[in-house]
Amino acid sequence: MSQIQHRLAKRGDLRLTLDAALFEHALSKSVIGLDQTGWKSLDGKKDKPWQMWCITAPGVVCHRIRADKGAETFKVLVGKYVGTIVCDALKTHEAGAREGPGIVLAGCWAHTYRKFVGVETAKLHDVDPARYLRTAALAAERGEALLPWQLTQS
Fold first, then answer.
1. How far apart are CA 127 and CA 149, in angstroms?
2. Cα dist from 145 to 6, 78, 98, 99, 125, whole Å
3. Distance from C-alpha of 51 to C-alpha of 61, rounded to nearest angstrom
4. Is the entire prediction scored with pTM above 0.70?
């Protein structure tokens, strides 16, 4: 191994050590935030997107790329955490938290606010708010977003 390769390897090890320390620091807090979003494949294929998981705590943000947003992935990332996780109301989060030693899930106000805005927008577009909420929930289960005026197009 050349001297440059050796130095780069040491830096890589340091980066992994810092990343693990930051993640551990976030999980040491009594309240953390958790969210995930689709991470599209860069090859342009229409494959199922990867999921970018984001764990936040005061002063730190950690990201993890995983193949899914399932309960098993939730458990791998935060299953041993003890405290409150502020997150959206995915059934997979509830399933993963059930097996955690001391996880309390708290609803995310941003997601709640988005639903209120959706209901108000639905009314403006003559869409039944209850229909919007039902259809939006089904879309969310598929990992899709639904805007109220899209219902008027169907």
1. 8
2. 46, 25, 27, 29, 17
3. 16
4. no
Q: Parallel, antiparallel, or unpaired: how do β-strands 31-39 and 50-57 relate? A: antiparallel
List C-alpha distances in Å: 149 to 37, 53, 111, 126, 143: 23, 29, 18, 9, 19
Query: What is the β-pairing status of strands 102-107 and 82-87?
Result: parallel
Token output for 47: 């494959």
3-class SS of residue 150: helix
As a whole number, the mean pLDDT across the chain is 79
- Which pLDDT tens digit goes with each residue over 83-95? 999 988 778 888 8
Q: Which residues, other chains included, contact 19 with Cβ-Cβ below 8 Å and sequence gap of 6+? A: 62
- Buried-state track 32-68, b at ≥16 Cβ within 10 A, e below 16: bbbbbeeeeeeeeeeeeebbebebbbeebebeeebee
Would you kindly state where each structural domain of the chain is located, as residue ranges? 3-107, 111-153
